[in-house]
Amino acid sequence: MDGITLCSIGELARRTGLTVKTIRFYSDRGIVTPTKRTPAGHRLYGTDAVARLQLVRTLRELGVDLPTIRKVVDEELSLAEVAAAHAEALAVQIRVLRLRRAVMTAVATRGSTPEETEMIHHLAQLSVDERRRLTGEFLDAVFGGPGIADAMTGVRRSLTPELPDDPGADQVRAWVELAELSLDPEFRSVMRRLVEDLASDVARSDVTTPRRHLAATVRDHVAPALTAGVDPASPEAECIVAAFTADCAHLLGRPDDPELRRLLSARLASANDPRRERYARLLAVINGWPVPESLAPVLGWGVEALRAGTPR
Hints:
This protein has 15 helices and three strands. β2 and β3 form a beta hairpin. The chain is rod-shaped, with a radius of gyration of 33 Å. Helix content is 68%, strand content 3%. The chain has three domains: 59 residues, Orthogonal Bundle (Multidrug-efflux Transporter Regulator, Chain: A, Domain 2), CATH 1.10.1660; 95 residues, no CATH class; 97 residues, no CATH class. By secondary structure, the protein is mainly alpha-helical.
């Protein structure tokens, strides 16, 4: 051992920042062994012990267990293999913690009852297959049946949530709320009526390419009126109503008459259900899409103006 610099356990503690007790603990478990002992039995370590202990300290701070650490320092396992496995384990823990945080935040924000808390927790923990099954049941209820399923394939796809494998807390909270909406029978009925109306419009047309939606047509006419502060019950509003009912009559291939106005009023009121807009916003968060603009002011103005207008 001549020519080899050895250091005492105290010196090793000073150089590594570990306590003597900790180094002795690692030494007793064979993770770092003394090079020799003094005649009095005191341990002496080689210079390689410093690097070895610094690696041990780093791995312990990262949460790696001692048996695995010993395999690394003894070169039975490569550091890269351990790092990869540990990174994956940490990713799982992060997902679990993110999920728990999302559930607790939702419970705190909503002031949920114990029963609601249990439901939120259950929905948040669904597997990928379970989420797809729940989503599929909702979409089947909305889009199922002859004359609708085939014609509305694209619309169905646009309403399908796809929670990513590693979702953020906002996405988890959005998924829980969207799942609850999907289970609401009244909301399913609202969406079913909207889809049936849309399918009926498509069936009345010989055009196979996507057509402009009634709400978009009304929005183009009504948005400037809202900006200008036009009262929907005023005579000025009647000109705006006449313009968008004419365009809608053309889209639907039917006369612009009082019956059309009643139909448009019912359609716009149904589309203005706040749950429909909430679903669209939650869907955007889950899928990472831009949040859609709110049509509530436009649709509300249109419904009020249609009901206030004098039938022609």
